[in-house]
Request: fold
Amino acid sequence: MTDVRAAARDAAARIAACEAKGTHAFLAWSEAALLAQAEAVAASPAAGAGALSGEVVAVKDVIADATFPTTCGSRILEGWRSPFEATAVRRLREAGALVAGKTACDEFAMGSSTEWCAFGPARNPVDPSRVPGGSSGGSAAAVAAGAVTMALGSETGGSVRQPAAFCGVVGIKPTYGRVSRYGLVAFGSSLDQIGTFGRDVTSAARLLAAISGRDDRDGTTLDRIPLGEPGPVAASLAGTVIGVPREYFPEGLHAGVHAATRRALERLKDLGAEIRGVSLPHTKYAVPTYYIVAPAEASSNLARYDGVRYGLRDGGASDVRAMYRATRGRGFGAEVRRRILLGTYVLSAGYYDAYYRKAQRVRELIRADFARVFAAGVHALFTPTTPTPAFKFGENLADPIAMYLSDVYVCTANLAWVPALSLPIGRDQGLPIGGQLIGAMEGEGTIVRIAQALEHSLDATAEVR
Ligand code: GLN
Reply:
């Protein structure tokens, strides 16, 4: 059995070192909380023997836990403490893990860089002049900096895979319904899933296995055989068909991203996999579809922050409507306000059919593209995770569309509900590049198996050109 107390002390030292470098991966953490949890695990035979006994896990600050505030990176929830704990957090505690603290994220998980975090962005440990990606950038940075070996993030449209790619770590977005959303602060409920980060494929998959499964508190969870622990690394991928969707490799793709994905595909072939060109023709509509569906759901979900039920209240107002306005005006940042405006617009009478209903139809076509390819015998798809490596602070901040386009390869899986993961596949001028494996519904086991074999056969820190 691991020495849980020693693990807690070591983790505290590593987190302190990470934060002393200015990474700002964490919005809240404490050595005392880590040590107290270690005592609790040491006193519990069940937790002590759990699958994650002594593992220290960082948690994105949109996931409720009982130890630290849950702020969602927003002024409107500054200092807010959840009266309950997310199912995913409860499960990792029951498995013997310790919660290290809460990580920096874009406000309400809206963003791709952590620059929209109201309490300051996290920095990319590989190059502090660059963003760690987002919205789960703090979790990715915490793993990349070596502060923790595992972390929880959340995905609505790529917020685990994109920062995993930018920071050179592994990120998994499970099938919709694989992990309970109970205690995950809602953004786009038909898209949201808790995802996992790991230093390697196996650690991210172990964390996912521990938190997944049916939960009576979330009626959308899958009532299936729970995900098992990942197996040993497969020596061969013979019999595995990997589809390469041409829409993800456009003319003019970033040369480093192109070189890294080509090299990874060669390795997959060397491992015995069959590489097959495929087409997902509705891919070009994914970003516009996502940026209608997600803000629509967000505008509804964020109506609850009204100064009455949670967090901040502007007390200076003369009547209740003025209080709502003042509270929301002060509490929400620019990107959240933009999403609420967009979402309210596409749901409003007269525009609903033109935008929201149309987007729902296109979403179905995107889902059908994936279903067709998997039904034709493809086991997984391989693509770049992002069109470029990590960008610099400020580069995309003034242009929301440019920021949104960094989700072009990741938001499809959320729209289609399928699982996907990102793993490091090489570096370009020192910057990590991520490769993405997308699976069929409930195909986490398959993409994890392929990713483990690829990871094993590839030096992900090598320059690719
Ligand atoms: N970057 C996307 C957005 O801003 C995705 C966010 C997410 O997955 N939570 O909406």
About this structure: The CA atoms of residues 317 and 323 lie 5 Å apart. Residues 109-112, 135, 154-159, 187, 294, 407 surround glutamine (CB under 6 Å). The chain is about 40% helix and 15% strand.
